[in-house]
């Protein structure tokens, strides 16, 4: 495949780049005497569709004799795509041009369709005859899927004798959910911007074809191209011809286009009309007619339009409950209008009310509606009752809606499982979910897989939806190993009986080739990665230990206390039992009620999800609960370190470009695994004060709100806790970043189980920046949170021409800085202030220091006027948000852009810099603050040095 180059820089990739370069340099082949020639460089764009020359010379010769041309039997557009893919694939694999011909000759590869009721509508057979190979589908899609499977067999260098096979998909609906927005941002996306350039449509990019090929190659037959937090603009008439052009590309590869629909679209899209619609009540006749007209309009342009996906009455989205109607009434109004076109309506069940315990809420809302949804309406349910945690119980709605079409929603994009920094191969988790026996029918069944494949209740409008991780990064998923989850989801949607071992082996061989050592090493890493991530992030099913707002990346257990856990000095967990807690365990079949509701019977991996547990409780391993928390986090971190070592042993067996890229990912992974280990272990030791078995450790804590001032002496307060059974004497100092940093040391003696605060002298240079600092401890010993701690350095106000803390009027003020709030208008004497309409102010609370907690921002551009002194001056501006993700902020003067930030995950900040000149006498500068269309810019501080 070919496509545009894209490689965004984030804090974590910058963090990893230096160490990764050193690691890669140290692990590349040391001499040309290696038994393996280094493969040519790749960038990851081709994913598993790599048609490289077959390496086995004997097998290559046999392939060349067996496959000399292609014949397509039929003129359907999907069959033509199958022929084109066979020509592309065979030509690459065989190293010679393989043409498409009209007549079947000797050694032909023939692709076509044939009625076969045993294959269902999308199954296929691959049959090797005496003089040809026949790829036959029950329909055109089946023939296309067979063509891809045939090529994958050759990619994996299977003998000719093993090419015969028959297969059919288990789930009728195999769907991707994109969370892409009109401005091309992606909610929970970690691989750049949307691959869809909406404003270019109906102009088409080659990458759209590659996207469609990618989906078809693993049997995905439906895709929802926009965010469930939907903009009504996607349904505006002016946009539909562009979407029709995109649907045409997808159609040629057997994929139906869907749209997420905003339930209030009739209100939004008629607002400028003489007689606007002012409600979205599904029983209102004008609302019904508007949707009928819109659906008619869509199908005139997109005859195979799949339907709508709707998120309603959830997290601020509009819906039928706003008008006293049920979710079923809201869904059925749309489903009835789609039915005439063979369209479907997928309605998400993810709803929650408050945060006391949202685990039980959606069951109580949707279970009473079972049997009320119409035949072409499908309820889409997340795998767990919370929100895509690394470990949750299976959602009790599976088995709780036997008279309702149901899809399972899995999150391929790693919102809570490490983004594109932590390797977390999710197929083992998904296997455990699909294999869960609900005990809601006869015997122990049905399983979740039985429900979503239609076996349980004899249903056809069921399946699997994956919230996908694709973006416009060159490697599609933000890191080279991320596509394994995309591939794995699709393979499970096709056949949930496949093992994780089979699926990951398939992906490795297609992505990296058949080198046995590469397959063996990488498979071992991948299959352990989910349990490893769980071990250092989520003790015993607790989950949700990141900030509840923002990026859901960094550990922050204090922010979710009483949300996901009720930690005290005596114990931790969440009592969700029917007997004494929220009642959640009572939502399951009696079999699971007896297990989950009992402290003695509950599986350890879900213990803290279901129960509040004393720290001294003994697990099945014999360890106390608190010792398990300690040990699992240390063990998980060590496994990540071993992952990095193991990858290092593959130097020379993988092309250098991808090898170095993956090495960088593992470097960043180690840093973040250490951060998680240190934060969670320190948190629970701080509450329990139970000394661990063994030698113990020191743990360092930094009072919130600490800033380092560049250009002046600081006293960095560090609390040192001795989590061991013996007294320790230590000397601590900030490790200098470079020669511009001045540091000093401080000593302390800390008793067993006690804490002491040391004041560390540190003078950074006069700069505005962020740094990952380390604290050196002597004598050397295990010291948690002594490395990779993020500190903001902001210039000393006394040494600045201008130092502004920008935010709300009543937020804490940075020492020496002047306040700029929305009410700060331009004043000549003061020398700064807003010109024209002022922006909005936000304060994210005391979790953050005075500089980062608040900011000003807005959707429209706003102007901040400042006075520049004579001569050259350096402008530095802090952008970021301690809550939600932060879109790009653009700072301009007139028509000149001075600086632009990237998309920043929530909780990540950056300084922007620009050089200005005040001329011989000084001048005023009108700084225009803006973002991309319909996105919110941020400004937290501005200094001139």
Provide an overview of this structure.
The chain has 945 residues and is α/β, with parallel strands linked by helices. The chain folds into five domains: 38-167, Chitobiase, domain 2 (2-Layer Sandwich), CATH 3.30.379; 173-512, TIM Barrel (Alpha-Beta Barrel); 536-574 and 611-688, Alpha-d-glucuronidase, C-terminal Domain (Alpha-Beta Complex), CATH 3.90.1330; 697-793, Sandwich (Immunoglobulin-like), CATH 2.60.40; 800-944, Galactose-binding lectin (Jelly Rolls), CATH 2.60.120. It is 27% helix and 21% strand. The strands form nine sheets. The protein has an eight-stranded parallel beta barrel. A six-stranded mixed β-sheet has the order 2-1-3-5-4-6, covered by helices on one side. Helix 14 (500-512) packs across helix 15 (516-537), helix 15 (516-537) runs antiparallel to helix 18 (625-648) and helix 18 (625-648) packs antiparallel against helix 19 (656-688). The chain is globular. Mean pLDDT is 94; it is low at 2-35. Residues 477-690 form the Glycosyl hydrolase family 67 C-terminal domain. It catalyses: Hydrolysis of (1->2)-alpha-D-(4-O-methyl)glucuronosyl links in the main chain of hardwood xylans.
